[in-house]
Amino acid sequence: MPVAPLDDHSQPRRLIFFPVVIATVLLTIIGMIGGYLLSERRGRKPVTTGPGSPSAWASPAPILLATDGPCPKQSQEMGGGAGALGTLSQVLRITTDRKSVVWICQDEAGKLFYHANKGGQDAPWEEGRTALFLPDVERLPDGSFRAVATWDRTVFTVSGERVVIRRSSGAEEVRKVVPD
Asked: What is the pLDDT of residues 89-131, one digit of tens each?
């Protein structure tokens, strides 16, 4: 007896082309993002907690500048209140033609601070009146340093030759460095 094919097994065919293309595109995008993130990590060094055991990825260590002893005790006290890490060391100390003394100090993490006092280190220190302490000092490419007073946007640029004080009004005052 001849066998006739059963028609009840014939179901409509579903097209799988579009779902396969969409899945391929999504997997490609996920792979590209993963590769990008891994390549970003490549330039960082692992932070170790023990001998040779990386615990996390971190940016390169800060650049520490050459120092010449500790900054004055008044700077140490102000630095402690401004989030300085450890002892502040003197990166630059200058005296201006108006008898002000300016220190650029660096903490143990490489963060820079500005501290100045009218009349020098032995003159009375009254913060906000005769003395001025500013955190977040920036080292410029020419080797000078820039500090900004946040309350009035006055910019202090300090180098081994001069101190330039630029007020927010645009007025500029230049003080020359003199030998101690």
From this structure: 999 999 999 999 999 999 988 999 999 999 877 888 888 889 9
Q: How many other C-beta atoms lie within 10 A of the C-beta of residue 108?
A: 13
Find, among 114, 111, 127, the residue nearest to 155 by Cα.
Answer: 114
Domain boundaries along the sequence of the chain: 73-178
Beta-bridge mates of residue 93: 103
The CA distance from 162 to 91, in Å, is 16
Give the separation between CA 63 and CA 69, rounded to whole angstroms.
18
The residue behind tokens 């020419």 is: 142
Say whether pTM exceeds 0.85.
Answer: no
Residue 50: how many CB atoms within 10 A of its CB? 7
- Please give the Cα distance from 71 to 87 (Å, whole number): 8
Q: Which residues contact 176 (CB under 8 A, 6 or more apart)?
A: 96, 97, 161, 162
Q: How does pLDDT run across 26-51, given as a tens digit for each residue?
A: 999 999 988 888 777 665 544 444 44
The secondary structure of 142-154 as a DSSP string is TS-EEEE-TTT--
